[in-house]
Sequence to fold (216 residues):
Amino acid sequence: MTVSLHREPLALAVFASGAGSNFAAICRAIDEGELQARIAVCISDRPSAGVLTLARERGISTEVISHRGEDDEVGRSILEALDRYAANFVALAGYLRKIPEVVVDAFENRMVNIHPSLLPAFGGKGMYGRRVHEAVLASGDRVSGATVHLVDNTYDTGPVVLQQSVDVSPDDTADALAARVLQVEHTLYPAALQLFASGRVVIDGRRITIRDDNTA
Ligand code: GRF
Fold:
């Protein structure tokens, strides 16, 4: 059994390729004292990503890391950046690149992702953004949601840390469902990170349990 007790204060590296609304939600939770962490660095693969502007406005360090080149080489650049900013935990928040294995291995049990469905449903390569919600609607499922999971070496298959469901209505559109799921993500992700920050996440293979909060 592995017990993930995060004794060091959480120094997050947030990876994002897009607008960064989850990044903003994490910042807000830190500001409001709901998440005991600091953001060591915001990393993107795209120089024009909106998230970089959000980070700079807050005085948070940013890095753009290109994914051109061999996986190992990209991995080394990422590990160097994580080391330079003394990040001890990685949160993927809309990062559209696969994280090189060398990084996943180095951050085993210390790297999470958020996905806009109830995994293992509607995950995997190519399942991101609007496509996820279109597939949910096409399936006729009545429930969707968001998942925070540990990252392993394949897309969206790591053990689940937290999930929250969102009802799907018969007249939903992909955009409407996406907006409701995103709303849920904005509280779910900081809450999941706080579980790590407070050392409450217990990892036993694929089974993750949450210890009681004895500080309450
Ligand atoms: C979110 O829906 C997240 O679940 C997915 O990518 C999206 C990122 O959105 N992995 P944002 O950039 O945080 O607004």
Q: What stands out?
A: The two ends are 26 Å apart (CA to CA). The helical segments are 21-31, 50-57, 71-84, 101-106, 130-139, 174-197.
